[in-house]
Amino acid sequence: MAGMTWFASPADASNRLHEVGYLADPATSTTSYLAGALEKPLLVEGPAGVGKTELAKAVARATGADLVRLQCYEGLDEARALYEWNYKKQLLRIQASHDSDETWDETHDDIFTEEFLLTRPLLTAIRRETPTVLLIDEVDKTDIEVEGLLLEVLSDFQVTIPELGTITSTRRPFVVLTSNASRELSEAVKRRCLYLHLDYPDAEREREIVASQVPGLDDKVTRQLVDTISRLRELELKKAPSIAESVDWARTLIALEIGDLDDKAIADTLGVILKHRSDHDRAVKELKLSR
Fold first, then answer.
1. What pLDDT digit, counting tens, does each position of 57-84 carry?
2. Residue 179: count of CB within 10 angstroms of its CB
3. What is the DSSP string of 227-275?
4. Angle, helices 10-19/52-63, rounded to nearest 10 degrees
5. What pLDDT digit, counting tens, does each position of 226-252 carry?
6. With b meaning 16 or more CB within 10 Å and e meaning fewer, what string describes 217-227?
7. What is the pTM of this model?
8. What DSSP designation does 186 have?
């Protein structure tokens, strides 16, 4: 198997992720390094908006790898995750064979070839010969049956297609599974993975993130923004502001040339960070903002 050193050390992971705009804490840097060094999938769990998906994207950017993403959802099946046959194209080929002298066995062998195969994310990642990051996003949204499929793939990084045989990866992808913990994943899946829990960053780290992404924002306003975001996350909201929304808010304040994040400025721009009417109402009430 062709190997690749994804990161030379935890410090190297931290530096290279930082260079592509992802400020990783020590646990994230260490686990990212180990996932590459041990060739084990990395399960990243935590609330929505803390940078789980962004970590996989950052690893791809930092290492120059391709990113292949499987977005999980309820009802996802093997055909959408792994592969399926192009039935319409096969049917056209069968119809065309009626006008020729081909036997059914010849036609059958012809339609179950690469030409008619539609590869989905899991098979695409396994077949890649170039460095690849496989992102299996929001795995907790899938059915239990899909976990069985993932176990097969993540155990041996090979897939058996009855008509074509077994396809084995020549270069193992760097695998990141993300979960919002909406349901408990099976112990079998967890055993095969390294585990990382991401939460919202503390105020100091979030200021660093905002400052690195939006360097034009005044330090005082950055502090006001992060303090307000922290207060909002303590409320019982339907959807707490994500780190990405903190950054969006910072860019909004620059666009509006706001030099002081007072109550009026917060009330006027709440739509950037809160996307539910009930969350708006609660924020206005709890932060004592005038509408």
1. 999 999 999 999 999 999 998 888 988 8
2. 23
3. HHHHHHHTS--SSPPPHHHHHHHHHHHHHTT-SS--HHHHHHHGGGT--
4. 90
5. 999 999 999 999 999 999 999 999 999
6. beeebbebbbe
7. 0.85
8. P
